[in-house]
C-alpha cells in the first residue's frame, strides 16, 4: 500500500498510471506481429442443453499466446485490436480456425456440433461478411449449421441499418445468430423485435445473483419468458453453481454455459470432454459439474 501522505504516496499513484499506459503500449506494439506470427489460439466452452444434459455446441474464445507474457485474455487486447483496425483480420482468423478445428473434430469422429464465434461490430458492418462466411464454410466442407455468430446489442446499434441487413442475409443462408450479453446494452424491445436472431444469451451478471437476489431473479424470469414468447432459444452465461442451474431449469431456460459444466478448454481437452459427457442424460447433471 502507498503511504498515506508525503511524496511516496504521490509517487505510488504516478507509477500506477504509468503502468496502465505501459499495459496498453505493449499490446499496441505486439498485436500486429502476433497476427502475422499466428500467436493466437482458440479455447472452447461447451453449451449444455438444460433439459436433457447434452452438449449442444461450443463457444470459441480467443487467447493470445504471447512469447514472453504467457496466455493473454481477450479483455486485454480486443479493444486495442478494434481501435487499431486489426479486429476484422482477427475475426477472419477466428472464423477460419473455428471451422478448421470443427472439421478436424468431425474427422476424428467427434459428434457434429455448431461452434459459435464472437465477431465485433466492425465486422458486421462489412458487406463482405456474408461472402466470407460462405467461402469459409465451403473451404472446410461444412454446412451453415456448423457455425454460429455472436454479436452484442451495442454492435447492432452502432450501425443498425447495415448490421441488420447483413444479419438478415446470414440467416437466409442458415447461419445462426446469437445476441450476446443480453440485458447489458441499451436496445429497446421494439428494436429487438425485428432482429433475425435465433439465440439470446442472458448475461452472466444476472445469472450471478440467482436464486437469492430478487432483482436478478426477476430479470432472468422476464428474459427467459420473453425469449420463449419470441421463439428464441435462451442461453444462460456464467453458470457456476448447482443452485443457479436449478433456478435456470425451473425458469425454463434452454441452454447453459459456465464453469459448473466446464471452463473454456483447449481443443484436445474439449474433445475429451465431449467424448466423456456427450451422451449424458438429465439425471447426470451432478456429474457434469465434475470438471476435468
Ligand atoms: P463473451 O462472449 O460474453 O464470453 C463469455 C466470457 O465469460 C468468456 O470470457 C468466458 O471465459 C467467461 N465465462 C464462461 N463461463 C464463465 C463462468 O461460469 N463464470 C465467469 N465468471 N465467467 C465465465 P473471456 O474468454 O475472457 O472473453 C471475454 C470476452 O471477450 C467475450 O465475452 C467476448 O466479448 C470477447 N471475445 C472472446 N473471444 C473473442 C473473439 O474471438 N473475438 C472477439 N471479437 N471477441 C472475443
Ligand atoms: Mg460470446
Ligand atoms: Mg457474453
Ligand atoms: Mg461478456
UniProtKB/TrEMBL annotation:
<protein>
    <recommendedName>
        <fullName>EAL domain-containing protein</fullName>
    </recommendedName>
</protein>
<feature type="domain" description="EAL">
    <location>
        <begin position="24"/>
        <end position="278"/>
    </location>
</feature>
Amino acid at each position: 500500500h502507498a503511504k498515506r501522505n508525503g511524496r511516496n504516496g504521490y509517487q505510488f499513484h504516478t507509477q500506477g498510471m504509468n503502468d496502465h499506459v505501459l499495459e496498453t503500449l505493449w499490446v499496441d506494439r505486439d498485436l500486429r506481429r502476433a497476427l502475422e506470427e499466428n500467436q493466437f489460439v482458440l479455447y472452447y466452452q461447451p453449451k449444455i442443453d438444460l433439459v436433457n444434459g447434452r452438449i449442444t455446441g461450443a463457444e470459441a474464445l480467443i487467447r493470445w499466446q504471447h512469447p514472453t507474457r504467457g496466455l493473454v485474455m481477450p479483455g486485454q487486447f480486443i479493444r486495442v485490436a478494434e481501435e487499431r483496425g486489426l479486429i476484422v483480420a482477427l475475426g477472419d482468423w477466428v472464423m477460419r480456425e473455428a471451422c478448421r478445428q470443427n472439421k478436424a473434430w468431425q474427422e476424428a469422429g467427434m459428434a457434429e456440433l455448431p461452434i459459435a464465434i464472437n465477431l465485433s461490430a466492425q465486422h458486421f458492418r462489412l458487406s463482405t461478411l456474408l461472402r466470407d462466411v460462405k467461402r469459409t464454410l465451403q473451404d472446410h466442407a461444412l454446412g451453415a449449421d456448423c457455425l454460429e455468430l455472436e454479436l452484442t446489442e451495442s454492435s447492432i446499434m452502432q450501425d443498425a441499418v447495415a448490421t441488420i441487413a447483413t444479419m438478415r442475409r446470414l440467416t437466409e443462408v442458415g447461419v445462426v445468430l446469437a445476441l450476446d450479453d443480453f440485458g447489458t446494452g441499451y436496445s429497446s424491445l421494439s428494436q429487438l423485435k425485428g432482429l433475425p436472431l435465433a439465440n439470446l444469451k442472458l448475461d452472466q451478471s444476472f445469472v450471478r445473483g440467482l436464486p437469492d437476489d430478487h432483482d436478478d431473479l426477476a430479470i432472468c424470469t422476464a428474459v427467459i419468458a420473453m425469449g420463449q414468447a419470441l421463439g428464441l432459444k435462451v442461453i444462460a452465461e456464467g453458470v457456476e453453481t448447482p443452485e443457479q442451474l436449478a433456478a435456470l431449469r425451473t425458469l425454463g431456460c434452454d441452454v447453459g454455459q459456465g464453469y459448473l459444466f466446464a471452463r473454456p478448454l483447449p481443443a484436445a481437452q474439449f474433445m475429451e470432454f465431449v467424448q466423456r459427457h456427450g451422451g449424458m442424460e438429465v439425471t447426470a447433471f451432478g456429474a457434469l459439474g465434475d470438471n476435468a
